[in-house]
C-alpha cells in the first residue's frame, strides 16, 4: 500500500489519523513541524501528503509551495477555514484537495485513495535529480552552473556553492554557521565575514532581474533564507 505523510502541529490529531490510516493498510509517516515535514517529503518521496494549513512558523500553503519545488505527490489540505478564497488559495499553491475540519476519518481515507487512483492514471514525467528549478532559475549540479531564463549567471565556485546550499533548503532559515560549515568544512565566528562576502558576491550576479535578486532574503543577525515560490 502507499506511503502517506501527515504534517500537522497537533500531535493528538497526528496520532489519531496515523492509527486509522495504518489500519486502512497505508504506511504512515508523521511530522509535527513544517521543517520536519518538508525534510521527510524530500527524503521519503511519499505517495500522498496530508497537510494542515494553520501551523506556526510556516503555514500549510507555504509548506505546499516548498514541497512543489521537488515533488508532485498529491496534497490534501486539512483546515478549519471553509471560505471559497481559502480553498482557491490552497489549489493555487499546488494542493489537490481540501478537507474542512471536523472531518470523518473514512472520508479522509477515501479522498486519499481517490487521489492515488487519479495519480496512477497520469504519466509520470522523468525527474532529473541533477537539476533544480525555481521559476526561471535553473541550477545544474552536474555542470556546476546556474542559469536564469536560459542565460548563464557565470558564478564562481564559492558563489555556486552558496546558491546550491540555500536552494536545497528552500524557505528555511539557514544560519551563518550552517552555511559556513557547508562551504568551509568547519566554522568559527571569524568565518562569518567570509560567508557574508560570498553571499554578497552571489547577490551581485543575481541583480540581472528583480525577482532573481530577491530570492535570497537576509534573516537579521542569523543568516539567510532562499525564497522559493
Strand order of the largest sheet: 2-1-3-4-5
Broad structural category = alpha/beta
What does the main sheet amount to?
Answer: 5 strands, parallel
Binned, the helix content reads 40-55%
What is the CATH level 1 assignment of the largest domain? Alpha Beta
As for the CATH topology of the largest domain, it is Rossmann fold
As residue ranges, the low-confidence spans are none
The CATH superfamily of the largest domain is known as Response regulator
Number of helix segments?
9
Average pLDDT metric:
87
Order of helices and strands: EHEHEHEHEHEEEEHEHHHEE
| Rg on CA atoms, Å | 19 Å
Number of strands: 12
Whole-Å distance between the termini? Answer: 32 Å
DSSP strand content: 15-25%
Shape: elongated
Integer count of domains: 2
In CATH, the architecture of the largest domain is: 3-Layer(aba) Sandwich
In short:
It is built from nine helices and twelve strands. The chain has helices spanning 11-23, 34-44, 60-67, 84-92, 105-121, 157-167, 176-184, 192-205, 210-213; strands at residues 3-7, 27-31, 48-52, 75-79, 97-100, 131-134, 137-140, 145-148, 151-152, 173-175, 216-219, 223-226.
Question: Can you characterise this structure?
Answer:
With 229 residues, the protein is of the alpha/beta class. It has two domains: 3-121, Response regulator (Rossmann fold), CATH 3.40.50; 131-226, Orthogonal Bundle (Arc Repressor Mutant, subunit A). Helices cover 42% and strands 21% of the residues. It has nine helices and twelve strands. It has helices spanning 11-23, 34-44, 60-67, 84-92, 105-121, 157-167, 176-184, 192-205, 210-213, and strands at residues 3-7, 27-31, 48-52, 75-79, 97-100, 131-134, 137-140, 145-148, 151-152, 173-175, 216-219, 223-226. Strands 2-1-3-4-5 form a five-stranded parallel β-sheet, sandwiched between helices. It has a four-stranded antiparallel β-sheet with strand order 6-7-8-9, with helices on one face. Helix 6 (157-167) crosses helix 8 (192-205). It is elongated, with a radius of gyration of 19 Å. 31% of the residues are buried. The model has no long low-confidence stretch (mean pLDDT 87).
Amino acid at each position: 500500500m502507499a506511503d502517506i505523510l501527515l504534517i500537522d502541529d497537533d500531535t493528538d490529531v497526528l496520532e489519531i489519523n496515523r492509527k486509522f490510516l495504518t489500519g486502512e493498510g497505508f504506511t504512515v509517516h508523521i511530522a509535527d513541524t513544517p521543517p520536519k515535514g518538508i525534510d521527510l517529503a524530500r527524503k521519503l518521496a511519499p505517495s500522498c501528503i496530508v497537510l494542515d494549513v494553520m501551523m506556526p512558523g510556516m503555514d500549510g500553503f507555504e509548506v505546499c509551495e516548498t514541497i512543489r519545488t521537488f515533488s508532485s505527490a498529491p496534497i490534501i489540505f486539512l483546515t478549519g477555514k471553509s471560505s471559497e478564497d481559502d480553498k482557491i488559495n490552497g489549489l493555487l499553491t499546488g494542493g489537490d484537495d481540501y478537507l474542512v475540519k471536523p472531518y470523518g476519518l473514512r472520508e479522509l481515507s477515501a479522498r486519499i485513495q481517490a487521489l492515488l487512483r487519479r495519480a496512477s492514471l497520469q504519466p509520470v514525467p522523468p525527474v532529473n535529480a541533477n537539476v533544480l528549478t525555481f521559476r526561471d532559475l535553473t541550477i545544474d549540479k552536474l555542470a556546476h552552473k546556474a542559469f536564469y531564463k536560459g542565460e548563464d549567471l557565470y558564478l564562481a565556485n564559492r558563489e555556486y556553492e552558496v546558491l546550491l546550499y540555500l536552494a536545497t533548503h528552500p524557505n528555511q532559515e539557514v544560519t551563518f554557521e550552517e552555511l559556513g560549515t557547508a562551504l568551509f568544512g568547519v566554522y568559527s565566528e571569524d568565518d562569518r565575514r567570509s560567508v557574508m562576502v560570498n553571499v554578497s558576491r552571489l547577490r551581485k550576479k543575481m541583480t540581472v532581474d528583480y525577482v532573481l535578486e530577491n530570492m535570497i532574503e537576509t534573516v537579521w543577525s542569523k543568516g539567510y533564507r532562499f525564497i522559493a515560490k
